[in-house]
């Protein structure tokens, strides 16, 4: 018997022993467990990827919404600034118009006051001149007659 025979016999005994101890089923079970573990990890990785894609989509949606809101806020601020400018311009124009009207009223009043003062001075000068003329031309008897007639005229008008 040569060495190959004994090597073959040893191999067969070894294989029989392995089958008896149930090594192939343990190896199969170990491989099945390993395959299940890899399958679970792949499933978990797939779920995490889907969650990440959902989060990415949600954040992109939120970013677009924030950009839209920022645009609306900017547009609203521009509109409000335009309204404030128009309002300020209108108020300034109204203020200038009121101040102009007030100045014109003051100028008109000053003109009336000046005309009245000139008239008053003219009347005072005319009265003084008439007094001087009457004093030069009228004597005491004529003055007495004028006084009496003036008194009579005042009495008749008062009654």
Automatic annotation (TrEMBL):
InterPro entries the UniProt entry points to: ATP_synth_b/b'su_bac/chlpt, ATP_synthase_B_chain
Which is one Pfam family of this protein?
ATP-synt_B
| Compartments where found | Cell inner membrane; Cell membrane
- The reply to whether Thylakoid figures as a keyword in the UniProt entry is no
Q: Look up the signal peptide feature and give its range.
A: none
Coiled coil region boundaries: 28-94
Q: Which GO terms describe its cellular component?
A: plasma membrane; proton-transporting ATP synthase complex
The GO terms describing molecular function are:
proton-transporting ATP synthase activity, rotational mechanism; proton-transporting ATPase activity, rotational mechanism
The record describes its membrane topology as: Single-pass membrane protein
UniProt keyword NADP, yes or no = no
Assigned keywords, A-Z? ATP synthesis, Cell membrane, CF(0), Coiled coil, Hydrogen ion transport, Ion transport, Membrane, Transmembrane, Transmembrane helix, Transport
Q: What is its main location?
A: membrane
Q: Where are the transmembrane segments?
A: 6-23
Q: Which family does it belong to?
A: Belongs to the ATPase B chain family.
Q: How does it assemble?
A: F-type ATPases have 2 components, F(1) - the catalytic core - and F(0) - the membrane proton channel. F(1) has five subunits: alpha(3), beta(3), gamma(1), delta(1), epsilon(1). F(0) has three main subunits: a(1), b(2) and c(10-14). The alpha and beta chains form an alternating ring which encloses part of the gamma chain. F(1) is attached to F(0) by a central stalk formed by the gamma and epsilon chains, while a peripheral stalk is formed by the delta and b chains.
Function, please? F(1)F(0) ATP synthase produces ATP from ADP in the presence of a proton or sodium gradient. F-type ATPases consist of two structural domains, F(1) containing the extramembraneous catalytic core and F(0) containing the membrane proton channel, linked together by a central stalk and a peripheral stalk. During catalysis, ATP synthesis in the catalytic domain of F(1) is coupled via a rotary mechanism of the central stalk subunits to proton translocation.
Q: What is this protein called?
A: ATP synthase subunit b
Query: Organism, per UniProt?
Result: Aquibium carbonis
